[in-house]
Automatic annotation (TrEMBL):
GO terms for biological process: cellulose catabolic process. The lineage of its organism: Bacteria, Pseudomonadati, Pseudomonadota, Alphaproteobacteria, Caulobacterales. Pfam families: Cellulase. This is Cellulase. Residues 96-398 form the Glycoside hydrolase family domain.
């Protein structure tokens, strides 16, 4: 998810809801965020991009060099390729609305992350955690130096995950939009400079963790054309180069780069190919999936379309037929997940579905059908991601699991995820 000002009843963030109202999502149109509508092109996205120029010159000069103590490469505990690691993760979850919260970890209503919470995720059947994380609010604006207190706090939470034998994906999330909303030629040099400075510090501070720690370049970078996707690729290249240059285990660490808008269609239609990497087979590709947005994202009717309450071939309502989904149902899920397999996974590039999920609404008149729709969507998308070799990371902000009591708030939803992942 992008910038959030607090948790809504659906577990989504308000800013994403606002963005969604500007996007028309019939099957022929690309949607906002990840997993929009539209047909799938057959353009190849594999291989190494020839359009990605070196970011070294554009990423230097504005801030100090923070790669001040590079060390020799260390392969201990780093033997798995990205594909081998992806195969070990059947189901994963986001700890959303927390470490990316503007104003501090508890600013959006969630408690501090604890070892007990992380242990609970492990006990419930999750294999990995995605940590959406902000950095810019903890950094000096003139020097881009990140607070040592914040770096230590992030390291503590990563250690919680490692203690529980979970994989953990740590990213630069919305973070005020300094990267995600500035994918243009005028911003390129400044963004690359900050990307370099931040990742040199993050990577150095967390360098000693083994392969279970995975770094991710961004969240939902707002690129939608071939031209600005090439600029996005330079941001990803800067990320990779900065992490690798710190040495140690980072020389072999698996790294994740995001599709434009983390959109499954744009991943195929405008993605020019993966960045270059000095490590072999250590890159993953990330998309998000929230289709149709009328069912998952919006919480009120929009000028371009009404909310859907009912989704799936067996879940349409006769009580409110005007609220039945009219697009992006099972065949579309099949199409998009197969596109990820064909264009990436089959080419040796593992794919994570870094965010996805459907949540219950209070407005439907036919609640049994609505609840069945939500559970079916979560099960079906999880199942199809896994069937095509993609790794599903459910988006949760506290609606699934109470982060204070550690009680499961929605057992049916959890069961849908576990069944879809083949864990129940």
């Amino acid at each position: 998810m992008t910038q959030q000002t607090g948790k809504t009843s659906t577990g989504l963030n308000r800013r994403h809801l606002i963005m969604a109202t500007a996007c028309v999502v019939p099957l022929s149109v690309v949607a906002c965020g990840g997993g929009g509508g539209g047909g799938v092109s057959t353009a190849s996205a594999g291989g190494t991009s020839s359009s990605s120029s070196s970011s070294a010159s554009s990423a230097s000069g504005l801030y100090p060099n923070y790669n001040t103590n590079p060390v020799a490469a260390n392969a201990a505990g780093m033997t798995s390729t990205a594909a081998e690691m992806a195969a070990k993760i059947k189901l994963a979850i986001n700890i959303g609305n927390t470490m990316e919260a503007i104003g501090g970890e508890t600013a959006w209503g969630n408690p501090l992350i604890t070892q007990a919470l992380v242990n609970k995720y492990k006990a419930l059947g999750f294999d990995a955690i995605r940590l959406p994380c902000a950095w810019d609010q903890y950094a000096d604006k003139a020097t881009a130096k990140i607070s040592s207190t914040w770096l230590d706090r992030v390291k503590t939470v990563v250690q919680y995950c490692i203690n529980a034998d979970l994989y953990v994906v740590l990213n630069i999330h919305w973070d005020g939009g300094w990267l995600e909303k500035h994918i243009d030629s005028a911003s390129k040099d400044a963004v690359n400079a900050k990307q370099k400075a931040f990742w040199e510090q993050i990577a150095t501070h967390l360098r000693d963790f083994d392969e279970r720690l995975i770094f991710a370049s961004a969240n939902e970078p707002d690129a939608g054309t071939e031209a600005n996707t090439k600029i996005l690729l330079s941001y990803h290249q800067t990320f990779i180069d900065a992490v690798r240059a710190t040495g140690g285990r980072n020389a072999y660490r698996t790294l994740v780069v995001q599709a434009p808008q983390t959109n499954t269609e744009l991943a195929v239609s405008v993605w020019p190919g993966m960045p270059t990497d000095t490590a072999t087979k250590r890159l993953m590709f990330e998309v998000h999936y929230y289709a149709p947005s009328q069912f998952m994202i919006i919480d009120k009717d929009a000028s371009w379309g009404k909310m859907f309450y009912y989704w799936g071939r067996d879940n349409h309502s006769t009580i409110e037929p005007d609220r039945n989904a009219t697009h992006s149902e099972e065949p579309y899920v099949d199409q998009q997940m197969l596109a990820m397999k064909t264009n990436f996974i089959d080419k040796g590039i593992p794919v994570i579905v870094g965010e996805y999920g459907a949540w219950r609404k209070t407005q439907p008149l036919d609640m049994p059908k609505h609840n069945a729709s939500v559970d079916f969507w979560n099960r079906y998308v999880t199942q199809q991601a896994r069937a095509n070799g993609a790794v599903p990371f459910f988006w949760d902000t506290g609606a699934l699991i109470d982060r204070t009591t550690l009680a499961v708030r929605d057992q049916a939803m959890l069961d849908a995820l576990l069944i879809g992942a083949g864990k129940k």
